[in-house]
């Protein structure tokens, strides 16, 4: 009962904070109006102990007791001020987050900037629906990047949601926190199937496939690096000597185009198809094959390289999802 009441009260406070603050930009600075502070359990026990000490000092007219009580109370007030100041003026900026596969942990990059003259210690950042948070310190005038973890159970777009920034520095008697509502999202690819049918054979005839004139049979020379070139084709020794990235070129008939088509998997449901197609894309890329992708709502022209792989995985991640979620 008390847990449900606490959860309901917390939810009401969160809704109030959202209405009060609204959505945030990609870079914000925490001001006094955005930093909330309350005593922790240790702080409440500390205050109760001071109250008992005050009663005892008054009952026995003990001047040393009064002095110790007031000194500890002043220490608590200084601790409260330091805890609030630890967040006040902290700047946060959204960073780039890498895509992950379903079942993995996404990590949202948040850049912290401390423009003040005092270090900020014991900073804790965590996602609204995350199970873990990250803790770190920030020296005066320094900046750093933290990675906020969040489980990615399903494919599609994963939003960080409300970000909690809090601290209980220096004595743990008070907890200061702030909520940040940045529009941070990362893409979650389908989890590749563990057991998938073999890759489709190259298509022949009626123009379904075409010879790849960039085959790997005979070395024909070097050219400048282009985005998407396979790392295994980079001439690392020559590039180091020339101080310029160079890619090896090959001649030969190569292998014809392979089409990774969802219609080749009629016996599976939609999510199983995407998982198998994801495995095919990863295997085709690892083998440096020339391949295309066909989905019910998308068609990716044949290609190869890292950029082509990312394009195919992105199409698989967003396949069948409403447009507004992409």
Mean pLDDT: 85
Distance between the termini: 40 Å
Q: Catalogue the unreliable spans.
A: 205-217
Count of distinct strands: 17
Strand order of the largest sheet: 2-11-10-6-7
CA-based shape = elongated
Judged by helices, strands and strand pairing, the structural class is alpha+beta
Largest pleated sheet = 5 strands, antiparallel
Number of helices: 6
- The percent range for strand residues is 25-35%
Order of helices and strands: HEEHHEEEEEEEEEEEHEEHEEH
Give me the secondary-structure topology:
Layout lengths: L1 H20 L5 E3 L6 E4 L1 H20 L2 H23 L5 E4 L5 E2 L3 E9 L6 E8 L5 E6 L4 E9 L4 E4 L3 E5 L6 E7 L4 E5 L28 E7 L11 H7 L3 E6 L6 E4 L8 H17 L4 E5 L2 E6 L2 H13 L8
Parallel strand pairs: 4-12, 15-16
Antiparallel strand pairs: 1-3, 2-11, 3-5, 5-8, 6-7, 6-10, 9-12, 10-11, 13-14, 16-17
Helix pairs in contact: 2-3, 5-6
């Amino acid at each position: 009962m008390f847990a449900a009441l606490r959860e309901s009260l917390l939810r009401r406070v969160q809704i109030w904070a959202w209405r009060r603050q609204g959505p945030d930009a990609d870079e914000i600075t925490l001001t006094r109006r955005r930093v909330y502070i309350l005593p922790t359990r240790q702080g409440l026990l500390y205050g109760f102990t001071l109250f008992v000490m005050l009663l005892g000092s008054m009952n026995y007219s003990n001047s040393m007791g009064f002095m110790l009580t007031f000194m500890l109370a002043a220490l608590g007030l200084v601790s409260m001020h330091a805890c609030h100041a630890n967040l006040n003026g902290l700047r946060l900026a959204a960073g780039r987050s890498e895509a992950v596969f379903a079942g993995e942990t996404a990590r949202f990059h948040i850049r912290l900037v401390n423009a003040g003259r005092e270090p900020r210690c014991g900073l804790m950042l965590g996602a609204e629906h995350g199970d873990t948070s990250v803790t770190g310190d920030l020296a005066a005038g320094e900046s750093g990047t933290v990675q906020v973890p969040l489980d990615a159970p399903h494919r599609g777009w994963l939003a960080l949601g409300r970000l909690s920034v809090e601290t209980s520095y220096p004595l743990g008697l008070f907890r200061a926190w702030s909520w940040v509502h940045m529009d941070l999202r990362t893409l979650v690819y389908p989890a590749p199937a563990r057991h998938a049918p073999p890759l489709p054979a190259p298509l022949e005839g009626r123009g379904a496939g075409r010879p790849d004139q960039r085959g790997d049979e005979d070395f024909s020379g070097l050219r400048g690096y282009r985005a998407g070139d396979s790392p295994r084709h980079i001439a690392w020794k020559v590039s180091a000597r020339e101080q310029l990235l160079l890619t090896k070129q090959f001649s030969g008939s190569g292998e014809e185009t392979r089409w990774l088509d969802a219609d080749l998997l009629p016996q599976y449901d939609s999510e199983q198809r995407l998982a198998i197609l994801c495995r095919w894309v990863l295997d085709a890329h690892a083998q440096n094959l020339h391949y295309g992708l066909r989905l019910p709502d998308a068609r990716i022209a044949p290609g190869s390289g890292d950029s082509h792989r990312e394009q195919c995985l992105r199409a698989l991640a967003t396949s069948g999802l409403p447009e507004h979620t992409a």
